[in-house]
Amino acid sequence: MAKTTVVLTRDDWTGDIVDPIDIAPKQITTFTFNGREYSLDLSMSSANELAAALAPWMEKASDVNVVGRRTRKIKAGSESSSETDPEERTRIREWARDNGYEIGPRGRISEAILQAFENRDHTPQNTIDTAATPEPAPEPDPQPADDDTKPTPAERAAIRQWALEQGRDVKTRGPLSPELIRDYRQTHAA
Fold this sequence. Notes:
With 190 residues, this protein is α+β, with helices and mostly antiparallel strands. The chain is 33% helix and 16% strand. It has helices at 44-60, 86-98, 111-118, 153-165, 178-188, and strands at 9-10, 17-18, 23-33, 36-43, 64-67, 70-73. The strands form three sheets. Strands 1-2 form a two-stranded antiparallel sheet. The chain has a two-stranded antiparallel ribbon with strand order 3-4. Strand 1 and strand 2 form a beta hairpin.
């Protein structure tokens, strides 16, 4: 016997059941007011009505970018920040690993790392606050050039950094090519 499950979306504003072709772009509209976050399931017409009602207020308001649970005001004249973008978080994590910070593959990025990343072009390396800067990651042990062992996370970061310095194409995430690993190990075997 076949079963069919039907999911209906009800517009939280009008109470009407929403036709699937009339669902607002992200289906759930979220907004924050006085530090509290709200969400609504809205049809396209209700989402437009909400946007029209808020438009005069948004014209006068300052943009705020949400990072984790904290908010930070965007500097006047700057483009909107993309720190909440997954690709940008990946770049921040790669940069942090390359610069000796302890950071996991997922989860919240600490404020100290975010600030260091934002100031990376403005702060000389020798003036970074050592209280906020962790010990640098140990250099990977040199391995024989013919070694087929999988690189450690620290070695992967070093290989990516080396490849970028050499002008080679390398992805910020994912597996490294065996040729790239071999070339790196041959260059650094001494």
